[in-house]
């Protein structure tokens, strides 16, 4: 038995407009979750993140367990209070980061033993410890502990890895403390193989979760291959539960995934790009460090209503980035998160209005323009 | 002839409560000017700086002339528009930074030839070029180009240096384009020597400026010696013009200087400290990186109304600083600027109310407490 936590409000083709209900409030879907790795969305105050329209953040279990530690976050009131974000939080399981960031890791049936990349101390992440840590953080949406199957993988490797994740999913579910408004999502694996994706989905649905994620994508297979998998994988999941595509992506990835029935997304792209000089806009990506921006009195996008675009020139933001000024990272991060949330709002409205196909055409025409005409 | 740009509203002992009028608005004194070196107050959006109560910023001519260049700032609408700060701006002359930051500098009667610390290119700063650059930036308060006499200096060295600055002050005044609301301040030098300070003041008053600065302090002589000089130096300046003590200081320095008749201050202290984990409070300075703060659920100061203190624990800000997160710098910088502006407001109100002596006693008692009692 699982809580009813998802309302499907409208559909247009495969695209879905819904609402996820959690202990800390509602999340309108399709939703993009900014990443707050270490208990902070880098370079953004939480009230600014909320002002962009974000209704949910993602927190990283791996980072928080190592510093400041889940017990300390719990002692300081839980992650919401700790970071001053009263709205919903989804935490990942740490499974992905432990494989990509930690040192001397050893993976067994039990879980993953590893050394912290910060101080070399030994830790263990397992379905039980990951679930317990997410509980200590007071996460609204707990993710199952899984192994992200690497790309490329043979059918046999992908099957072995997926089946381990499915055994871990049973243990994650057993370790999950059920409380009203607290959700747990299972994670589908299976690599690029349709029959394995189907097997994984069946195993998860048999266990029963409040929502389902599609894992193991956006790890090097490319957009064409990702979309090919998304042409079938979401259909293996129940219609009445939210579907979360982990670690995706660029704006065009998100639009394509929504059209294939995905409801939730997270990615470091808008925040990381904001610290390295890249702006996402309705007419594509631009690098503010490019010399052509140095003397440009226009905003990044004259139609954008974010603080960076309403009050600052490209020339100024170019200058801040060249001078490595923190305010440069602050303004571009804000712009990027604003753009992402505006995109999600546009997707939601188009699905409601039954104009999703037109929205996608407009989006693609804009991206193809790549920047304003030169001055 | 100089514009009337200063209104002395009240006095309590030597402490003065006044108002400076500029092309971009009024500045209530005693005033603290946050430093916006490269066209940005580091880690603060300008609306946040204004929210702390700041009415004027300081911009650095040396940094801005090298990057992005004064002509570019002018082409992008002047410094106010460039950095989105519509209130008054004071610019220094570049004289201090060119001696401390540039390479291969050569000082002559004409000015200072130097190579940029950024790209090694040759530049010249002189009374004429410095004044012209400040005009291009559209600075409300232009500073004379001077030589900051090093400490220590013999009477002869201090005299030579001061007299060069006085000859440069004549040339700076000649180069200044007079417009309503645009002010130029002369800078008193003379080291630690009373007769030289007096000679310098007379030379400046003979030229006639809208305001006067005291330069060459806070460069290693220590607070006791600085206060000894401030016991006489401000008295050499006309009562009806603002007095600006350059590069000062810590809160106790400011309180002591206001009691000796100073009206305006600037210092990188609150912003720089905000990026290195130090908080200024009514009970002294604390280093948030100290381990005792890691588990402390209390704010930096429970009486403080800044965003860092109303919404975040010491434990959280400790964590952000340990993790080198930008938001840690943002919150502590905001707190420090808020504290400084609240201190200035307290000084202004006390002078108005004739309770300056009590205010200073309370301030000193608070500073002596050094932090809240441990939990």
From TrEMBL, chains A, B:
Binding site for substrate: 92-96, 146, 189, 216
Catalytic activity: 7-aminomethyl-7-carbaguanine + guanosine(34) in tRNA = 7-aminomethyl-7-carbaguanosine(34) in tRNA + guanine
UniProt xrefs under InterPro entries: ArchSynthase1/Queuine_TRR, TGT, TGT-like_sf, tRNA_ribo_trans-like
Chain residues that bind Zn(2+): 304, 306, 309, 335
Keywords noted in UniProt: Glycosyltransferase, Metal-binding, Queuosine biosynthesis, Transferase, tRNA processing, Zinc
GO function terms (MF aspect): glycosyltransferase activity
Cofactor annotation remark: Binds 1 zinc ion per subunit.
Entry keyword annotation includes Zinc: yes
Subunit structure as annotated in this protein's UniProt entry: Homodimer. Within each dimer, one monomer is responsible for RNA recognition and catalysis, while the other monomer binds to the replacement base PreQ1.
Protein name: Queuine tRNA-ribosyltransferase
Organism for this UniProt entry: Dongia soli
Gene name in the database record: tgt
């Amino acid at each position: 038995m699982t809580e009813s936590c998802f309302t499907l409000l409208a559909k247009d083709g495969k695209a879905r407009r819904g609402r996820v209900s959690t202990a800390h409030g509602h999340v309108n879907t399709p939703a993009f979750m900014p990443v707050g790795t270490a208990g902070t969305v880098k370079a953004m105050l939480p009230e600014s993140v909320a002002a962009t329209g974000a209704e949910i953040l993602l927190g990283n279990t791996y980072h928080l367990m190592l510093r400041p530690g889940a017990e300390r976050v719990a002692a300081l009131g839980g992650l919401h209070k700790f970071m001053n974000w009263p709205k919903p939080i989804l935490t990942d399981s740490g499974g992905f980061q432990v494989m990509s960031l930690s040192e001397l890791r050893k993976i067994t049936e039990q879980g993953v033993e590893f050394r912290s990349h910060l101080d070399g101390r030994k830790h263990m992440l397992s379905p039980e410890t990951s679930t317990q840590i997410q509980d200590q953080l007071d996460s609204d949406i707990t993710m199952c502990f899984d192994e992200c199957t690497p790309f490329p993988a043979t059918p046999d490797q992908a099957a072995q890895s997926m089946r381990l994740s499915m055994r871990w999913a049973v243990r994650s579910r057993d370790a999950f403390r059920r409380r009203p408004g607290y959700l747990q999502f299972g994670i589908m694996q299976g690599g690029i193989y349709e029959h394995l994706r189907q097997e994984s989905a069946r195993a998860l649905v048999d266990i029963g979760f409040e929502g389902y994620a599609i894992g193991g994508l956006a790890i090097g297979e490319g957009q064409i291959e990702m979309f090919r998998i998304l042409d079938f994988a979401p259909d293996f999941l129940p219609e009445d539960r939210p579907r979360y595509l982990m670690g995706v992506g660029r704006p065009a990835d998100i639009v394509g995934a929504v059209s294939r029935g995905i409801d939730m997304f997270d990615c470091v792209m808008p925040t990381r790009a904001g610290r390295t000089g890249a702006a996402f806009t309705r007419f594509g990506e631009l690098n503010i460090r490019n010399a052509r921006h140095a003397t440009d009195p226009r905003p990044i996008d004259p139609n954008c209503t974010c603080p960076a675009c309403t009050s600052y020139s490209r020339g100024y933001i170019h200058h801040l980035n060249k001078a490595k000024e923190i305010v440069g990272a602050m303004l571009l991060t804000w712009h990027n998160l604003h753009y992402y949330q505006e995109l999600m709002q546009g997707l939601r409205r188009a699905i409601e209005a039954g104009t999703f196909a037109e929205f996608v055409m407009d989006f693609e025409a804009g991206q193809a323009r790549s920047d304003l005409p030169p001055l």
